From TrEMBL:
It comes from Streptomyces katsurahamanus. Residues 29-51 are annotated as: Disordered. One of its GO terms (molecular function) is helicase activity. Residues 108-294 form the Helicase ATP-binding domain. Signal peptide: none annotated. This is DEAD/DEAH box helicase. Residues 335-487 form the Helicase C-terminal domain. NCBIfam families: DECH_helic (TIGR03817). It comes from the Bacteria. Keywords: ATP-binding, Helicase, Hydrolase, Nucleotide-binding. CDD domains: DEXHc_Hrq1-like, SF2_C_Hrq. The keyword Hydrolase applies.
Length: 825
């Protein structure tokens, strides 16, 4: 029997959300008047004072496991390069910036010299101004050209919200320059009647990689005047382009460079990120170009107080009688409520869409008990909302109309939310890069800020709140991406051939794996070679071969059955687990039941309801080894890396009580199996190692299963992944290895680089896994160590002590040197 643990690509990332009753540590009587939010320019309470108020109630102080104080830092000014036009400098000064920081001036100098540059400085350090100064200067120069359109620039953001926010900022900054600067957003929300104007007249087009892939590049003849004048390509929040998504974007950028070259231009790339490790290497890997790094942050920084917060144990017991901590969702709702009552402007980051909705709903209920005017000052913000809903929420947050927002990572990036006082993070977001991005949303106007990380009942979260050095004394992770992944590369070669026939000289641009793929694409009938090169042979659009977000397939629309109203969408890859027949779906605080999932038409029909339960999908998974690329001995056992095929099928779902998580029943589902060819790391143990570890046959399955769960939970410390990006299977006797085996695999076709990183850091990774299990205070295993919220086998069987002994014995045979760690990308 195989015990499985699935990634988001094949499993619902929501899981059961049991919300325990919230009892505020500070009683909130109905006549309690909330503190008025400070007006602009008015003194705000210090972050330390805000934290003291949160910790003042009974039992609250014990929940803070660590407090980190990051002191304020003075800034270092410079002067703009003399090639920055006076009109641009005047506009910047009118916006309140008298002199640039030293890193802004340095980045502008590189850009004007024609060098691609990555600006890797902290949040709110003025990265936008660093690239806008040379961009606006070049656009102004071009506007004075006697013939032609003049210079243009392209801005790429990972989200629509960030592009829209940046467009507003550019319009405000460039207002004194008149109509010589013409910024415009071009994305899926742009009205059809505006698109032709953008193509013909906009000088600064703000879009996203998805629109570049599906809209701009396939229609490049219609964009010819823009592309002939393209001087700069700005890539904002470049650290987000990792894994499969980053690999796709790397190939989209190569396609852009190829098309630009055909129009006679070679734009300079300007990249920005607040949380990039080895930024020049990462930027070069993404763009395929040598890139200069500017990372010496000269901006001032206000005080940041960063608290690690562990919710208390409850009287409830979970699976197998394990102790259960109060959920991070409930604890975060509690903190958001208290901060709102204090008048502290706060964003609470929640990992799932359903979690963001729940935090908002719970906080509103609590606030209504204090002041009936307060619930309208709190809202939820997540992906899947309609464009007009997102825009309204962004305006309300920006204006201060909203005091509290429960948001998913859709709000993590560089949206200008100046004026926030605090950030609450419900669960470790998967990487240190994301953690610091989220923490950096507060204090963006230079004032002090409070950040609180609320731990989930999870091995990694529990480990981190008790090992603060793993957060505060370690650099952010290196970006992991693999543009040579054949599942990524192949559709982009087809898309490139559809844009312009591919020639021999083009192949080098797309990477060393291109030569091997071309014959395969020919034999599959996708490309045909002629004298002028390789041509796309099909009638359908080649750009539709792939979803660059890595989900694959068209999104499933969630439609209200009675009215036909579109509520939102869910990725096709998550549909089997998120919107199966009978699933509970939340949208803007309302609860719906899925009446029917129509896979053929990609529609889930829902009806509003109020069930007293949540739903969790159950599934089965098996793994077969296709090819072993690397194998190293660990004592008598083996550590391996290679290609595998994963077969998964959602077979049923559980209904759980909202308060206790108690299982009310299980319902069978009839959904088709899915297969995934991907990359994996796996380890085996020999009979002698089992004997030395005192793991008998009755304990073996539970020991392997427990080690698998904990190792998946700990991997995000060593690779830029989320636990939902990866999956696992443990087998007491695997038919391909003929030994007890644990697999951890990438949850994306062809792999995403996470399993490879795990293989090359295995000794450190599995040592931390063993420690996380061993130090947990529970007796037989709990969510803080070996139980998983997405286990397809309902966390059965698990053997905590057997896992510790097994990992101890395995690590005795680990080589002293990690096996050939490649340079970080």
């Amino acid at each position: 029997m195989a015990f499985n643990h699935l990634p988001a690509a094949m499993h619902d990332a929501l899981g059961p959300l049991s919300v325990t009753p919230v009892t505020h540590s500070v009683p909130m009587a109905k006549n309690l008047r909330p503190r008025r939010p400070p007006e602009s320019g008015e003194s705000r309470p210090s972050p330390g004072t805000v934290l003291d108020r949160l910790a003042a109630g009974a039992g609250r102080a014990a929940r803070i496991t660590h407090t980190e104080h990051l002191p304020p830092r003075p800034g270092r000014h410079a002067v703009w390069p003399d090639r920055i036009r006076p009109e641009v400098i005047n506009a910047i000064q009118r916006a309140g910036v008298e002199h640039p920081w030293a890193h802004q001036a340095a980045a502008a100098e590189h850009a004007l010299d024609g060098e691609s540059v990555v600006i890797a400085t902290g949040t709110a350090s003025g990265k936008s101004l660093a690239y806008l100064a040379p961009v606006l200067t070049t656009l102004l120069d071009g506007s004075e050209a006697p013939n032609g359109r003049g210079a243009t620039a392209l801005y790429l953001a990972p989200t629509k919200a960030l592009a829209a926010d940046q467009c507003r900022a550019v319009k405000e900054l460039a207002a004194p320059l008149g109509n010589r600067i013409r910024p415009a957003v071009y994305d899926g929300d742009t009205p059809v009647e505006e698109r032709e104007w953008v193509r013909q007249y906009a000088s600064y087009v703000l879009t996203n990689p998805d629109m570049l892939h599906r809209g701009i590049l396939p229609s490049h003849p219609r964009w010819s005047s823009f592309l002939r004048a393209l001087r700069y390509v700005v890539i904002d929040e470049c650290h987000t382009y990792r894994g499969v998504f980053g690999s796709h974007v790397a190939q989209v950028l190569r396609r852009l460079r190829r098309i630009c070259a055909r129009y006679g231009t070679h734009p300079v790339f300007l990249l920005a990120s607040a949380t990039a490790a080895q930024p020049a290497l990462a930027a070069g890997r993404l763009t395929g170009l040598p890139t200069v790094e500017v990372s010496d942050d000269a901006s001032p920084r206000g005080e940041l107080v960063f608290a690690l917060w562990e919710p208390p144990l409850t009287e409830l017991h979970g699976e197998k009688g394990a102790p259960v901590r109060r959920t991070a969702t409930a604890e975060t709702a509690d903190l958001l409520t208290d901060l709102t009552v204090q008048g502290v402007r706060t964003v609470a980051f929640v990992r799932s869409r359903r979690g963001a909705e729940l935090v908002s709903v719970i906080a509103k209920e609590r606030l209504a008990e204090v002041d009936r005017s307060l619930p309208r000052r709190v809202a939820a913000y997540r992906g899947g909302y309609l464009p007009e809903e997102r825009r309204a929420l962004e305006r309300a947050l920006h204006s201060g109309e909203l005091l509290g927002l429960a948001a998913t990572t859709a709000l993590e990036l560089g949206l200008d939310v100046s004026g926030l006082d605090a950030v609450v993070i419900a669960g470790y977001p998967g990487t240190r890069a994301s953690l610091w991005q989220q923490a950096g949303r507060a204090g963006r106007a230079g004032q002090g800020a409070l950040a609180v990380l609320v731990a989930r009942d999870d091995p990694l979260d529990t480990y981190l709140v008790h090992h603060p050095d793993a957060i505060f004394r370690q650099p952010v992770e290196s970006t992991v991406l693999d543009p040579d992944n054949p599942y990524v590369l192949a559709p982009h070669l087809c898309a490139a051939a559809a844009e312009l026939p591919l020639t021999e000289t083009d192949l080098e641009l797309f990477g060393p794996a291109t030569g091997e793929l071309m014959p395969q694409l020919e034999s599959a009938g996708l490309l045909r070679r002629r004298a002028t090169g390789w041509h796309w042979t099909r009638r359908e659009r080649a750009a539709d071969l792939t979803d660059i977000r890595g989900g694959g397939g068209r999104p499933v629309q969630i439609v209200e059955a009675g009215t036909g109203r579109l509520l939102g969408t869910v990725d096709e890859s998550a549909a089997h687990t998120a919107v199966h027949d009978g699933a509970v779906h939340l949208h803007q605080g309302r609860t719906y039941l899925v009446r029917r999932l129509d896979l053929a038409d990609s529609v889930a029909l829902v009806e509003e309801a109020a069930p007293p339960y949540s739903t969790t999908a159950r599934d089965t998974t098996s793994v077969s080894v296709l090819e072993t690329d690397i194998e190293v001995p660990w004592g008598d056992g083996r550590l391996c890396y290679g290609s595998v095929e994963v077969t998964n099928q959602v077979v049923s779902f559980l209904r759980r009580k909202l308060i206790t998580g108690e299982v009310l029943g299980e319902t069978r589902l009839d959904l088709p199996p899915r297969t995934l060819r991907t990359r994996a790391v796996w380890w085996t143990v020999a009979e002698g190692q089992l004997d030395a570890a005192r793991v008998n046959p009755e304990q073996l399955g539970g020991a392997l299963h427990a080690a698998e769960h904990a190792s998946i939970g700990m991997l995000p410390l060593f690779a830029t992944c989320d636990r939902w990006d990866i999956g696992g299977v443990s087998v007491p006797l695997h038919p391909d290895t003929m030994l007890p085996t644990v697999f951890v695999y990438d949850g994306h076709p062809g792999g995403a680089g996470f399993a490879e990183r795990a293989f090359h850091t295995a000794r450190e990774w599995l040592t931390a896994t063993r420690e996380a299990i061993a130090v947990c205070e529970c007796e037989a295993g709990c969510p803080s160590c070996i139980q998983s919220p997405k286990c397809g086998n309902g966390n059965e069987p698990l053997h905590k002590r057997g896992a510790v002994r097994l990992l101890t014995e395995l690590l005795k045979g680990a080589p002293e040197e990690e096996p050939g760690l490649p340079p970080a990308d």
